[in-house]
């Protein structure tokens, strides 16, 4: 038997009702903040992620699904391709490729789709997982750099989580500085790491040299006491980053969006500058981050585009669903009625009636004229239909149908023209 690949899974009904519920709520909330959908390819050039997410990050150095494609000629080697591990890089690539900066204002784009990382699968962590994300990006003159954009995005997330009935979330907030103050902070980090690094894990020994900020991504328990004593980025922010961060906090406070400051939060991607954040949720155990994001003011230039500051986030949809209170059963819709054609020639009559009823937005399941009534009633009850409508020769002649309510067994005869209203009413 061929099975689904490790770290991937099938989403089946009724569970998909939860996914649709979450996605519909996200689309609804994003719309009111004037975000519009973008769909980028799952396949991208590998170098897109090497240059944006960063070669030293776990995502690119360890978790990428990447391979060299065949060239046009049989013998020729082709392009290096990757399954996207996240969607910000692809969105910014599209922003540059289609010159979206020529459109007025800040581009507010959202996406919903699968992402791929070769991680060790566990609860809440998959190799194919789904993100719902959004990006607000544009020329500085359009206001894309403003702390008001950060606050707007964060408040939108709080609104979405509230709308989904997800309580007990914590917004963890940090500023990771910018190109201007990073060198001083890197220097301080390197200096602080000198006496300790020999005792740290192999990854940290490498990171300490190549990209010291990535030391904060380390999950090795023995390294944590050393990491806890490293200098705080908050002490190294330059004036403009500090003012920006203070203003983000001020607006959030004015909007009554609660947050906690966490100066160890750097997020595992290189492109973040200034604001970085995560929403965590207590019920999720080790994989407790429902979503993460931040500002990436230099990303467009890194990818060869114009200056285009931006801020965005990605919600881990798989994890969001784990923290949802609504059960799949409660969200999944059951048929309003099961039509039971009785006897030869009745399939066409039942199909006609089903068509009328479906025009009234009713959910209709159809039996088959070869079924005995007993079988139809049993099937209708198993699939959770509310009513059974019997479509036999006599009913068709009279243009009135036997309508049986399954919860009570009560049966009445209802003229065709009144059937939909009758089913809708109870
Ligand atoms: P990131 O793109 O790393 O900033 O992650 C954003 C969010 O995506 C995280 O907070 C998680 O909720 C989710 N996420 C990241 N990796 C995985 C994974 N392997 N499986 C499930 N969700 C993930």
At the fold tier of CATH, the topology name of the largest domain is BirA Bifunctional Protein, domain 2
Any idea what the CATH superfamily of the largest domain is called?
Answer: Bira Bifunctional Protein, Domain 2
Tell me the domain tally: 2
Report the helical percentage: 25-40%
CATH class of the largest domain: Alpha Beta
Bound molecules: adenosine monophosphate
Query: What integer value in Å does the Rg equal?
Result: 28 Å
Q: Unreliable segments (pLDDT under 50, ≥5 consecutive)?
A: none
Please report the number of helical segments.
16
Number of strands: 16
Main sheet characteristics: 8 strands, mixed
Quick summary of this structure?
By secondary structure, this protein is of the alpha+beta class. It has helices at 15-32, 46-54, 58-61, 88-97, 147-163, 182-193, 202-210, 224-228, 239-254, 299-302, 317-322, 328-331, 346-359, 373-382, 393-398, 416-425; strands spanning 36-37, 43-45, 66-70, 77-83, 107-116, 128-137, 169-175, 260-261, 273-281, 289-295, 310-316, 337-341, 364-366, 387-391, 400-405, 411-415. Helices cover 36% and strands 22% of the residues.
Task: Produce the secondary structure layout.
Layout: H1 15-32, E1 36-37, E2 43-45, H2 46-54, H3 58-61, E3 66-70, E4 77-83, H4 88-97, E5 107-116, E6 128-137, H5 147-163, E7 169-175, H6 182-193, H7 202-210, H8 224-228, H9 239-254, E8 260-261, E9 273-281, E10 289-295, H10 299-302, E11 310-316, H11 317-322, H12 328-331, E12 337-341, H13 346-359, E13 364-366, H14 373-382, E14 387-391, H15 393-398, E15 400-405, E16 411-415, H16 416-425
Parallel strand pairs: 1-5, 7-8, 12-13, 12-14
Antiparallel strand pairs: 2-4, 3-4, 5-6, 6-11, 7-9, 9-10, 10-11, 14-15, 15-16
Helix pairs in contact: 1-5, 5-9
The structure holds adenosine monophosphate (AMP).
């Amino acid at each position: 038997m061929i099975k689904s690949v490790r770290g991937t899974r099938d989403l089946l009904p009724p569970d998909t009702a939860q996914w649709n519920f979450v996605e519909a709520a996200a689309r609804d909330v994003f719309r009111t903040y004037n975000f519009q959908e973008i769909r980028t390819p799952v396949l991208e050039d590998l170098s897109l992620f090497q240059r944006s997410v960063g070669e030293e990050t776990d995502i690119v150095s360890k978790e990428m699904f990447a391979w060299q494609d065949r060239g046009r000629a049989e013998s020729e080697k082709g392009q290096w391709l990757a399954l996207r591990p996240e969607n910000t890089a692809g969105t910014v690539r599209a922003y540059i490729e289609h010159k979206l900066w020529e459109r007025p204002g800040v581009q507010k784009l959202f996406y919903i789709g699968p992402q791929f990382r070769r991680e060790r699968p566990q609860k809440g962590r998959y190799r194919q997982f789904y993100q719902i994300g959004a990006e607000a990006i544009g020329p500085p003159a359009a206001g894309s750099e403003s702390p008001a954009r950060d606050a707007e995005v964060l408040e939108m997330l709080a609104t979405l989580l509230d709308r989904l009935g997800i309580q007990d979330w914590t917004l963890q907030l940090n500023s990771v500085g910018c190109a201007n103050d990073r060198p001083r902070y890197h220097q301080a980090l390197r200096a602080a790491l000198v006496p300790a690094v020999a005792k740290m894990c192999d990854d940290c020994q490498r990171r300490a040299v190549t990209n010291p900020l990535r030391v904060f991504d380390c999950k090795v328990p023995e390294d944590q006491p050393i990491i806890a004593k490293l200098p705080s980025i908050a002490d190294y922010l330059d004036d403009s980053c500090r003012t920006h961060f203070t203003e983000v906090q001020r607006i959030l406070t004015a909007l009554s969006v609660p947050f906690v400051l966490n100066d160890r939060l750097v997020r595992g991607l290189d492109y973040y500058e200034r604001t970085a954040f995560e929403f965590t949720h207590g019920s999720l155990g080790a994989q407790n981050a429902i979503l993460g994001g931040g500002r990436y003011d230099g990303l467009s230039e890194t990818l060869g585009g114009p200056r285009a500051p931006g801020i965005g986030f990605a919600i881990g949809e798989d994890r969001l669903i784990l923290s949802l209170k609504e059960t799949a059963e409660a969200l999944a819709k059951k048929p309003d009625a099961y039509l039971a054609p009785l006897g030869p020639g009745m399939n066409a009559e039942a199909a006609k009636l089903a068509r009328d009823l479906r025009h009234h937005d009713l959910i209709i399941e159809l039996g088959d004229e070869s079924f005995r009534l007993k079988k139809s009633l049993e099937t209708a009850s198993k699939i959770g239909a509310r009513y059974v409508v019997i479509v036999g020769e006599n009913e068709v002649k009279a243009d009135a149908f036997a309508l049986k309510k399954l919860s009570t067994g009560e049966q009445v005869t209802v003229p065709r023209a009144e059937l939909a209203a009758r089913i809708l009413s109870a």
